[in-house]
């Protein structure tokens, strides 16, 4: 408080220079008003009933005696004089500020007295008082005002300017002053109560949005603090210390809950820090209730703590808004800029670093409350809108997720398909070694056999068989895109239709249920080889006039029949048909079936098997 | 369209083939159709083939796709444009359908595969002489895919000449139907049974499909060239 001491010295100096100004100020005409700034003051005890005879010093109003008589708790008498013209008209009198309680005497007559002139003191300072003076109390010529002020050095004790003059004009001044210092606080209190109550209800219904609750709590404490400006009775406290101590506790609690509100608003929880601050606020409350004589006089500590908390919270929030901009953050941050600016001024006023008769915070605080209310309501509206759009959003997100899933699955399916193809191709390459290569080696072996001289026609026949086999391998390998059996059989069917026709053999084909069938390249090749070998036999050996090829797919079974009306043979004397039959059997076996051969001489040949569509393990 | 059994006269036939053995084989196969070996001329390069086509205007030219001094496809295209009366048939070893399709689009009315038996080649050439063309399922499927990839515009009187030409090149319903059957491996006789047409008519349809394919390719090429500012 060294600043205050320094200011006190400055004040004393000023009053010294102003000494010559202490004189009877005259009221010049009916319409005029004068502000009585020159007065004399004398300290006295709590029980002083009459002005003291001695100890008067000249002072300039507004006067705070704590700078002149530090630690003087009790009564100070103020004496003011003015010169009244003798026109017999009444005058208005305005006592703007007297802290805390006072009694007013005009020319020795008691005009007004607060209910409590000893502790607990009435809280008269909160509003100005207007009086109408008339004869016989009012005299022509010199009039003397005696104002007995009861105050406590800790709470800015003293007397403000007193105004006398034209009753209407003084009354107008009084009303204006009352509105500014008193009415606005009531307004403030009402707005706070409405908004606090509103969001308290909202919080009751939506506990998960805890910032509503913290906002309501902060508003509640803020309202309790504002009572300081609108309650004139000391009730229920037995001392001004208790009242002031508690008031500061409310202030600090409001600042802490406000800080927590802002933290919650941006979705942050600092549990340990918040608990610490709340404990501190509770301790201030306990201190005020049980040790008011400490809490009251040292209230500035609590006020500073609260102010620091407020500033830290507000500046922190503004910083956060700049870092993570959002529409409702901007609204809230803007509503916080007002109190930051105004509160700096008010705090300085409160700490008596600058002087004035009114704290602006009260006038602007409804704006702040409304701004915060707007931010909360905005957020609420956004949440509502989101809830309303939830269905649409859900649908869209599900759609997007489904698309992504489809894409992924499609990709994976493609990969799997590719892998399958690569595997098939490797199998086909292996088959070129084992199958075609084997046939080639067999053919070479046969042709090189020194015991049998080969006819050129036989050599050609062997080579043509190899050629036909190679054709099948090529068709199966190069037309992987035709994955269904219908397409894969078509070239063979076409070629053999032509060949059989050229040989005057009527071929009939019945291919059914294979358009969607996918056997895999290896099994298809096996089937095509089976058909080719069977038809080769028909072409070469059967002397048939008709051949019927039937490939039916039904119920997971693939049935294959090749029936001719040719010579036929004795099945057990298999060698009569060359090496063809064992090869056909082997192919049927590899397809998971066993070949059924029905033939008798002169009655044609019927080859058939039924293979499972799913590959055998 | 000569599709009703009247034979095209094969009195001047040209074989464009650089391999002597294949030349002999083809000449042997052709002999049955043309009657005399004197009617068969042989060229072993694109350049000599062009000269011979210009001088003797053959009815039929068998063109090997792989020639020493140029591409058989180019020769087929040249013959189609400069000597429209000469029927060209492509020859290839194993008949990769990309090559076959390119030959058909260049103007060939068919293709012979060297891997086939002589009897099959003779049958194919008989079909050509009857005014038809040969086709197999893989080629049919490729043509169907190709046609589906380039949809035709609906006919309007203000259509540009080019678009009209393209429209002319659109396959008729009957032609697509036949292609579908071929793609499934049906023989010409089976298709004839199914459609109630004669098998010779079906061979004629095949030829007409190839013609349209060539027209489409040409108009597509012109269209592309125009859109690229080359024409």
Major sheet of chain A: 7 strands, mixed
Counting helices, strands and paired strands, the structural category of chain B is alpha/beta
H/E element string of chain B? EHEHEEEHEHEHHHHHH
- Strand fraction of chain A equals 15-25%
- Helicity range of chain A: 40-55%
Radius of gyration of chain B, whole Å: 18 Å
CATH topology of the largest domain in chain B: Rossmann fold
Q: Which regions of chain B have little confidence, pLDDT < 50, spanning 5+ residues? A: 1-5, 151-159
Which whole number gives the mean pLDDT of chain B?
Answer: 79
Shape of chain A: rod-shaped
CATH superfamily of the largest domain in chain B: Response regulator
Name the pair of protein chains with the most residues at their interface, and give those residue counts. A-B, 25 and 19 residues
Intertermini distance of chain A: 96 Å
User: How many beta strands in the DSSP annotation of chain B?
Assistant: 7
Over all CA atoms, what is the radius of gyration of chain A? 55 Å
Oligomer: heterodimer
Q: Helix coverage percent of residues of chain B? A: 55-70%
Strand order in space, largest sheet of chain B: 2-1-3-6-7
């Amino acid at each position: 408080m060294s600043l205050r001491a320094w200011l006190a010295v400055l004040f004393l100096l000023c009053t010294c220079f102003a000494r010559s100004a202490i004189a009877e100020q005259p009221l010049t005409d009916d319409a005029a008003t004068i502000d009585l700034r020159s007065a004399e003051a004398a300290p006295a005890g709590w029980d002083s009933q009459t002005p003291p005879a001695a100890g008067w010093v000249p002072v300039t109003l507004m006067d705070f005696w704590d700078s002149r008589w530090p630690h003087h708790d009790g009564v100070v008498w103020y004496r003011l004089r003015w010169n009244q013209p003798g026109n017999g008209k009444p005058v208005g009198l305005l006592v703007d500020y007297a802290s805390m309680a006072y009694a007013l005497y005009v020319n020795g007559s008691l005009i007004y007295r607060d209910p409590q002139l000893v502790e607990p003191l009435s809280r008269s300072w909160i509003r100005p008082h207007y009086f109408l003076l008339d004869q016989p109390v009012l005299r022509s010529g010199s009039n003397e005002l005696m104002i007995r002020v009861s105050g406590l050095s800790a709470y800015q004790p003293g007397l403000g300017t007193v105004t006398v003059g034209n009753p209407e004009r003084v009354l107008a001044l009084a009303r204006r002053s009352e509105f500014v210092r008193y009415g606005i606080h009531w307004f403030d209190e009402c707005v706070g109560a409405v908004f606090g109550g509103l969001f308290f209800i909202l919080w009751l219904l939506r506990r998960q949005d805890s910032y509503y609750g913290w906002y309501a709590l902060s508003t509640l404490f803020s309202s309790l603090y504002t009572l300081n400006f609108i309650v004139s009775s000391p009730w229920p406290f037995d001392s001004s210390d208790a009242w002031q101590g508690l008031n500061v506790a409310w202030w600090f609690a409001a600042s802490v809950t406000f800080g927590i509100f802002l933290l919650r608003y941006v979705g942050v929880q600092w549990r340990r820090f918040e608990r610490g601050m709340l404990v501190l606020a509770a301790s201030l409350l306990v201190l005020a209730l049980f040790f008011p004589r400490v809490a009251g006089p040292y209230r500035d500590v609590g006020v500073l703590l609260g102010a620091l908390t407020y500033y830290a919270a507000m500046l922190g929030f503004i910083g956060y808004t700049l870092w993570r901009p959002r529409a409702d953050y901007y609204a809230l941050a803007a509503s916080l800029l007002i109190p930051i600016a105004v509160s700096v001024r008010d705090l300085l006023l409160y700490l008596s670093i600058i002087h004035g008769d009114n704290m602006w915070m009260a006038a602007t605080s409804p704006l702040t409350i409304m701004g915060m209310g707007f931010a909360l309501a905005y957020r609420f509206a956004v949440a509502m809108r989101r809830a309303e759009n939830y269905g649409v959003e859900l649908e869209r997100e599900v759609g997007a997720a489904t698309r992504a899933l489809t894409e992924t699955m499609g990709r994976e399916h493609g990969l799997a398909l590719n892998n399958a193809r690569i595997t098939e191709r490797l199998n086909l390459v292996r088959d070129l070694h084992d199958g075609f290569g084997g046939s080639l080696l067999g053919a070479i072996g046969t042709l090189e056999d020194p015991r049998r001289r080969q006819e050129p026609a036989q050599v050609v026949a062997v080579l043509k068989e190899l050629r036909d086999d190679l054709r099948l391998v090529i068709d199966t390998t190069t037309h992987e895109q035709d994955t269904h059996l219908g397409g894969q059989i078509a070239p063979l069917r076409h070629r053999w239709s032509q060949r059989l026709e050229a040989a005057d053999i009527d071929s009939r084909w019945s291919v059914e249920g294979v358009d969607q069938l996918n056997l895999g390249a290896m099994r298809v090749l096996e089937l095509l080889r089976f058909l080719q070998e069977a038809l080769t036999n028909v072409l070469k050996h059967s002397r048939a006039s008709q051949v019927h090829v039937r490939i039916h797919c039904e119920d997971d079974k693939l049935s294959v029949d090749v029936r001719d009306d040719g010579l036929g043979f004795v099945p057990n004397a298999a060698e009569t048909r060359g090496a063809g039959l064992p090869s056909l059997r082997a192919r049927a076996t590899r397809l998971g079936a066993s070949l059924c051969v029905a033939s008798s001489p002169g009655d044609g040949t019927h080859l058939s098997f039924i293979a499972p569509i799913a590959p055998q393990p | 369209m000569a599709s009703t059994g009247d034979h095209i006269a094969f009195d001047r036939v040209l074989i464009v083939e650089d391999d002597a053995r294949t030349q002999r084989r083809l000449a042997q196969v052709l002999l049955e159709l043309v009657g005399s070996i004197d009617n068969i001329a042989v060229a072993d390069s694109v350049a000599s083939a062009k000269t011979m086509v210009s001088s003797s205007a053959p009815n039929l030219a068998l063109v090997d796709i792989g020639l020493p001094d140029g591409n058989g496809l180019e020769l087929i295209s040249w013959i189609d444009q400069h000597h429209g009366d000469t029927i060209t048939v492509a020859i290839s070893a194993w008949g990769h359908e990309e090559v076959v399709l390119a030959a058909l689009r260049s103007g060939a009315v068919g293709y012979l595969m060297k891997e086939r038996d002589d009897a099959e080649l003779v049958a194919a050439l008989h079909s050509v002489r009857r005014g038809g063309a040969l086709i197999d399922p893989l080629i049919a499927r490729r043509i169907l895919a190709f046609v589906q990839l380039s949809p035709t515009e609906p006919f309007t009187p203000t259509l540009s000449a080019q678009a009209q030409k393209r429209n002319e090149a659109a396959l008729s319903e009957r032609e697509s139907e036949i292609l579908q059957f071929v793609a499934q491996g049906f023989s010409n006789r089976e298709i004839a049974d199914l459609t109630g047409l004669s098998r010779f008519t079906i061979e004629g349809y095949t030829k007409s499909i190839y013609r349209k394919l060539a027209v489409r390719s040409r108009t597509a090429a012109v269209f592309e060239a125009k859109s690229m500012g080359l024409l």
